[in-house]
Every structure is written in C-alpha cells, then in structure tokens.
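Box S1 | Example of a co-folding query
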Amino acid sequence: MSETEIINALKHFFGYDEFRHAQEEVVARLLGREDLCVVMPTGAGKSLCYQLPILMRPGYGLVVSPLISLMKDQVDALNTKNLSAACINSAIPFSEQQRALTAAANGLVKFLYVAPERFRSSAFRNLLLNVPPSIVVIDEAHCISQWGHDFRPDYRRIWQNTPELQNCQYAAFTATATPAVREDIKLQLQRENMQDIVSGFKRPNLSFEVLNCSSDYDKRSCIKQMLRKKEPTIIYTPTRKDADSLAEDFGCVAYHAGLKDSERKQAQDYFMNDPCPILAATNAFGMGIDRPDIRRVIHYGIPKSLEAYYQEAGRAGRDGNPATCTVLFSYKDIKIQEYLLDQNNPPPALFTELHRRLLVHNARFPGKPIHPEDVENALTGYNERMIQTALGILELHGIIERTTLSYGAEGVLSFTQAPSTISLNPSPLTQRSLFLAKMAQFFLANNLSSYSTTLDGLAGLTGLSMPQVERVLQALNNTVITWFETAPDECIQLTELGQNPTLQLDMKDLNAKRDRDTERLETIRKYCQTSLCRQAFIIRYFGEKIGKWKCEICDNCRSQKKTSKSFDRNSAIVLQAVESIDGQFGRKRIVSMLHGEDDASAVLTSNPYHGALSRMDTNAINRLVSVLIEQELLVVLDTRGYPCIYVKR
Ligand code: ADP
Ligand code: MG
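Box S1 (continued) | Returned holo structure for adenosine-5'-diphosphate
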C-alpha cells in the first residue's frame, strides 16, 4: 500500500487532511501485517490507527476493550460516519448480540467491538473460528497487565486460551504503558516479538516544576503566592480532607468521591463554566472532563506514580498555550505514599486467613453469604482499609463475589405514635395500611416499643414480599414508623473458584505487584529530585525515543540556562582579558590577575580586567580557562620559550 493510497483513504473515510504523531507509521506497519504495541497519550488518536487499516482491508476487525461504557460511543461515532460497526457485550439484549454476530459472519460489519467476557460464549468463539477477523485490536491493553494501573484479570485470562486467534495479527493500544508493562502485555498475549511504537508524549507548552517544601505550611504559602495570579487552576490533593481544607483556606471549590452526587455535579459545572475556576480535587476528578484552557495544575502531594502524575498534570494547557505543572514536594509525601502502598498491598497471610474463614463459614452454611463485617471483626492485626483492599483483590480475581443477603437488610422498626391508634381493619386495604395493621397488632400482642428484624422477617409477619416491604418502609419511614437500618444487605460469598480448598491466588503475582508499586514510587521520587529536564525524564520513562530533546521551559532547563548565562558572562571577561594582554603571559599569571592579585608586572596590575573575577576562586577561574581551551576559544602557544595564552583566531 503506497503512502498516497493511505493518505487518500484517510481523507476518504475520515475527512482528515493529515495524520497526527505516529499515526501514519502505525497504519502503514499494520497494513504490512506487523504485530504492534502502540502507546500514545489519551486523545492522540489511537482509534484511527487501527480503524483505517481495517477499512482498507477485506474482512472485519475485532476490537476487544474492557471499558464497556466507552465502547458504545466508539460504535456510534463510526456509525455516524457510515462505517458499519457493532458491539457485543452483556449490556446489550441477546437478540441484538445475535444479530451482530450474524452480520459479522456475513461480512456486513467492518468493526466488531467486544468485551472480554464475550470469550466465554461458544457462539462467539465459533464465529472467530469460522470467520476469523482480519486483525485483533487489544484496546486499553494496560488493563491486561497486573502492573498497569487498572488491572482486569478477566482481560488477562482470555489470551492464554484462544487457539481461535492464534494466527491473527495483533495490535495492542494503550495510553499509559511503561516498558515493563509493555513487556508484560506481550508476554500475556504470547507475542513476544510485538514491536513497540511510543509517540506523542511531548507537551512543549507545559512547563514542569517541583518546589521543595519543608511543611504543609510551606506548601500553603506557595499556593497562596501562586493564586495571586488568577488563572483556571486544579490543585490535586492526596486526600479528601486536604481537598476540603484547601477549599476552605483559599475559598475555592472542592471535588472528591466523598461528596454527594449533586455536589459533585455542581463542582463540575463550576469548573466547566466559571471563567476562572480554582478547584481543589482528589484524583477522582478529571476523567472525561475536558476544559482546554487550564493554565495551572498544582500537586499538593506526590501521586503514586509518574503515569498518574503525567495524566493529571497533562490536563493543563490542552489548548496549546503555555501552562504550568507544579509539584509541591516534601519528604513527608514519600512516607504517606509508603503507608498507602502497604495498605494497597496486603500481606499474603491476610488472604489465606480471609479465605480460610470464608471456607469455614461456607462449610457450616453452604451457599449462604456473609457480611464483610462478620469476617472482619474476628481478624486482629489488620486495619479495616487493608481488609477491604484484600476483599477487593479477592473479588477482582474471581474468588469471592458480592451478593445481596437472602434475608434482606437488617434494622430496627418502631412506631412514632402509639400502635393502638392504628386501625387494625383498614380500608382501603393497601400494602401500606396492611403493613401498618399487621405490625401494630404484632407490637400490641408482644407489648413492644421497637423490634429488631430483617426484611425477610417483616415479609413473614405481614404477608408482603421482600421488595414490597422494602418499598413500604421507604414510603412510610419517618412518618408513622421509623426504620433504622443497622446492616445493609450487601455481603460476600465464595465463588465456585473460591470454594477450592487451596486459594486460587498467585502470591508471586501479588508480591510482584508490590515490587512494581515500590518501583513506581521510587521513580516519582527521582522525578522530584532530578536536576535534568523534567519533561524529558517523564517521556523517557514512557519509552518514547527523544534523543537529546529538552523542553527548555521546566525549572531545571531554565536554571541550567541561567547558569550557562553567567558562565557566558565570565567567559567573555576571560576572553577580553586575554585579548588585552595579547599573549605576553602564561596561564597562571593571567588567572591571578583576574582574581585580583598583585603582580610584578604593571601590565597585569594596571590591566582593566585586574580583579574582574575576584568573586570566583582561582580554581574556578582555572576550570573556566580549561573549558575555553577545550572549546578552542583560547590556545596555548609556546611563542616565548614558555607557554602563553592567546585568543584563537
Ligand atoms: P485516543 O488516542 O484517546 O483513543 P481517539 O482515537 O479517541 O483518541 O481520538 C481523539 C480525537 O482525535 C477524536 O475526536 C478523533 O476524531 C480525532 N483525530 C484522530 N486522528 C485525527 C487526525 N489525523 N486529524 C484530526 N483529528 C483526528
Ligand atoms: Mg481510545
């Protein structure tokens, strides 16, 4: 396929005149049937990289993505361009799934988007076997790797066991894969020869800086100083508490997952619509929010990885105009992150213990779910957060599942007026009046003032179903009765996999994850302490080849320029001094003259440059002379029977 053909296809299918970043290279190499692992930042245009080759070839392309919510948007976007696409996932009615499969089998669909769970369906696997796709696209490929930031075990599992795809071309895409994560992706895909293309990470308009702060007070002073200039700003904080307290101190708006939905919505609207919003937010803020003119992203503490940092900081300056990304760094931040790392990586013993307890429970009450709290309470030596994390990991690995209690939520029921005042033979007879009558009778018969029970218990007493009881309680709560819920009906249960007496969890994997998390933290620490170009540091970490490229605008690049400027001024003095003396003296005497020492020769003592570098010590002046000789600006010539210094002509 020639370059012109590719450009014509771009125009024809998408209406664009030119490619961005490495798009053209990716398209051409995919057309050349290479297996590729492509890393480009969000918004760089990865979809087009695989969509175009699929359109230019016969057959359909299979696009696998773990993010069902994004899948529909992609399919809709293609369909509005008159490019036939369909998606199959569990959120779609079965009949529609069947239709999509048939359409793909009959060559009526160019793009078939599926979620990983689809590989469990034999109808789908038959399609792959009988009508193989022209290419398998693995979107959001970092989710395959447990070292990535959004690991999905389901997504990892499918590749080990799909002989149907063995001979297909593979193309993996992601926005955030470090070299280690890419290696893992290839290993899991069993395509170790996959070639990497990393591109598009440079953000020449962003100037990065790290300010060393010794305390939170220091950090707040920095923020105060910065906020004097009014600009759209996001301040990222490590905790919800920090976000709230900064919002209070600086009169800005807070955003975090602890807010009510309506408050979050309000904060988002403020951020999108205010001419100069200032938001203090946790990392819950940002996904899908696209305000191009953010001029400043300040990190109140370090994030857990450089990937996370670049993603958050990268929300600045999307319009291409200058913007600043500042980290307020203190040693304490590392300590906080180390603590969080511990919480996020529970020790193997905790998993074994949790599993053992769940097995015991399951043996006593087969198939009966249990409250997480009942498991937690008996465990000592682990804090709640760590146990929650461990349960989350067990769920992620398919060992446990969350279910609803078969006997419903638990709570305490009471009447706000004497039960004797309630009509025991109500008319009309509604679910509510029936409920009240039955319960009043029960309270009176047993002389109760309150009754502790479950939804199931209430259903038994009133003859209503559990969902009916739930609705009645909701409607009547805080009127005639109060229903105080003491335990939600959410609980956990071992899956079939989890019922295996040996825990089906690879501890090696968990340890490896801990090591990776530690490494990531180390990288972000190095980032904060480097004296080299900050942006180059980040981009190299992602693995993009940039040679000697420097951003020229980060704090380190700027301070280097400053040093080289003063270096230049001093060099000029040395050169002019040597010029004025015109080769009559050797190096040693010229250096002492510049330093301001007396000399037997009046030529030197009365020279206009006598003492011109008195601020520098003689060693430094000597080094400077060496550099100038190295740069061939000065030469040493033996013109008088001893070595004299000249300006090179
Ligand atoms: P991501 O890399 O995050 O998957 P997308 O593929 O969703 O990015 O593309 C982001 C946006 O860029 C889309 O709106 C897409 O239409 C647009 N885009 C992609 N390539 C080009 C191009 N060559 N010229 C102009 N716009 C493009
Ligand atoms: Mg994408």
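The radius of gyration is 34 Å. The chain has a mean pLDDT of 90.
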